[in-house]
Specification:
The chain is mainly α and 391 residues long. 54% of the residues lie in helices and 1% in strands. It has a two-stranded antiparallel ribbon with strand order 1-2.
C-alpha cells in the first residue's frame, strides 16, 4: 500500500511477462547460417570468414603481442603458467587470465560478500570484503595498464588477495592466532589454504601471500602494485563509508590530505593513482612520490584513530574474537560436526589436525553464518553477538 492505494498484479500480467521471456528460450535464427543469435534483430558481425580474419587470435599470438607491449620488467604470460601441478595450456586464455577466472568462480571469493570490511552487517551501500577486492582490482588494473605491466596478473592477485580473511574483519586474525603455532595471517592463509585447490600460478599466489606491507616484497612488479592498490582503495573507501555512517565528516580530514588529495573518494583515488603512474613512468620503481605517500600515510593514520580504533570498533572486535574462538574450540572437539569431515572428504588423524581444520572451517564462514552457528551449537547469548553500527 502506498499513499492509501493498494496495488496488485493480475495473473494475466504475470503470464504475459513469462510468455515473452519463455519465447526467447531458444534464441533466434542467425540469418540462415545455422547460427543462433540472442536477439530477433541481431546484426552484429565482426567480419567475413576467411577474408577479414574472423578466425580470431590464438592464445600464443596474444602472448606474443602482449610481450611486445609490456615493460621490460613486467611479468610475461607463458603457456599454462608456473603451477604446482602441471596443466595443459588453455586454448584462449593466458595463464593469469585463467587464474583470475578461477578465483572469481571460487567459493572463497563468493563468501567475501558476507564478510566484514570495516562495518559488520553493513548497510546496502557500505563495503564488504568482496566489494573491497573488486575496487582493489580496479585500482591495480588501472595502474598496471598505464605502466606496461601484466593487467591480468595484477587483477588476479587483487581479486584473490583477501580470500584468506575470516568473518568479522581483522579481529578474526587475533581470534585464530590462538590456535595456529606461527600465527594466523590472512595473506598467507589465503594463498596456502583457502585457494590451494585452484592450482594457481606461483606468481599469483606469491602476490596474494605477500600483499600486506608487513610481509616480504612480492616477487613481481604486479604484486607490488597490488600492495599499493590495496592500501589506496581501503583508505579511500573506508573513509567514505565512515562519512556515510556519520562517524566522521570530510572537514575532519587532516589539512595535508584535503589539500593534496581532496575530500571525495573520486578525487582521492585519482590523486593517488596518478601519483603512482607518474612515479613508475619516471623512475621505473613501483612506488609513489614522497608528497602523495605522506598524504596517504596521514590519511591511513587518521582512519586508524577515528574509525578502526574507536570504542565501538574495539567492542565489535572483542565480540568477534570471543565468538570465533569458542566456535573453533567447539569444532576441534566435535570434528564430525564439520561437513567435510562428516562426509569423509577430510580425515582427522590427531588433535592438531582437528584444530587446524576447525580454524579452516570457521575462517571460511561468513559473518552471518558464524553468528548462526554460535547460536545453534553454542547457545551463544544474543547480547554477546557482534552488532552492526547503531544509527
Amino acid at each position: 500500500m502506498a499513499n492509501g492505494h493498494t496495488y496488485s498484479v493480475g495473473h494475466d500480467e504475470i503470464t504475459e511477462r513469462s510468455r515473452r521471456w519463455a519465447a526467447t528460450m531458444e534464441g533466434y535464427d542467425g540469418a540462415g547460417d545455422d547460427v543462433t543469435v540472442a536477439h530477433h534483430d541481431s546484426s552484429a558481425r565482426i567480419g567475413r570468414p576467411g577474408v577479414d580474419g574472423v578466425s580470431g587470435v590464438s592464445r600464443e599470438e596474444r602472448e606474443e603481442r602482449l610481450d611486445a607491449l609490456l615493460a621490460p620488467g613486467a611479468t610475461r604470460s607463458l603457456g599454462a603458467g608456473n603451477r604446482a601441478r602441471e596443466e595443459e595450456p588453455d586454448d584462449y586464455r593466458t595463464c593469469f587470465e585463467r587464474d583470475r577466472d578461477r578465483i572469481l568462480h571460487s567459493s572463497s571469493f563468493r563468501r567475501l560478500a558476507g564478510k566484514t570490511q570495516v562495518f559488520i552487517f553493513p548497510d546496502d551501500h557500505q563495503r564488504t570484503r568482496l566489494t573491497h577486492a573488486l575496487e582493489v582490482a580496479q585500482v591495480a588494473g588501472g595502474i598496471a595498464r598505464a605502466t606496461g605491466l601484466n593487467v591480468a596478473l595484477a587483477e588476479a592477485i587483487a581479486i584473490g588477495h583477501d580470500c584468506g580473511h575470516g568473518p568479522g574483519g581483522h579481529a578474526s586474525e587475533d581470534a585464530f592466532d590462538h590456535f595456529i603455532p606461527d600465527g594466523f595471517d590472512h595473506a598467507t592463509w589465503g594463498a596456502d589454504v583457502s585457494l590451494t585447490s585452484l592450482n594457481l600460478c606461483r606468481e599469483t599466489l606469491d602476490g596474494i601471500r605477500n600483499h600486506s606491507w608487513s610481509r616480504p616484497a612480492p616477487a613481481t612488479p604486479e604484486g607490488e602494485v597490488v600492495s599499493w592498490a590495496d592500501r589506496i582503495a581501503y583508505v579511500c573507501h573506508d573513509f567514505e563509508d565512515a562519512v556515510s555512517a556519520g562517524i566522521v565528516t570530510p572537514d575532519d580530514l587532516p589539512a595535508l590530505v584535503r589539500e593534496r588529495c581532496g575530500t571525495r573518494r573520486g578525487q582521492q583515488l585519482g590523486a593517488f593513482i596518478t601519483a603512482m603512474v607518474a612515479t613508475i613512468r619516471a623512475t621505473g620503481v613501483i612506488g609513489m612520490d614522497a608528497a602523495h605517500a605522506e598524504a596517504l600515510a596521514a590519511f591511513r593514520t587518521f582512519n586508524y584513530n577515528t574509525i578502526y580504533l574507536r570504542d565501538d570498533s574495539r567492542h565489535q572486535a572483542s565480540s568477534v574474537i570471543a565468538m570465533l574462538r569458542a566456535l573453533v574450540e567447539y569444532y576441534a572437539t566435535h570434528p564430525s560436526a564439520m561437513p567435510d569431515v562428516a562426509s569423509g572428504v577430510i580425515g582427522i588423524d590427531n588433535s592438531h589436525d582437528a584444530v587446524f581444520q576447525a580454524v579452516a572451517y570457521v575462517a571460511g564462514m561468513t559473518d552471518r553464518y558464524a553468528c548462526r552457528q554460535a547460536l545453534a551449537v553454542l547457545d551463544w547469548p544474543l547480547d554477546q553477538l557482534p552488532r552492526g553500527i547503531d544509527r
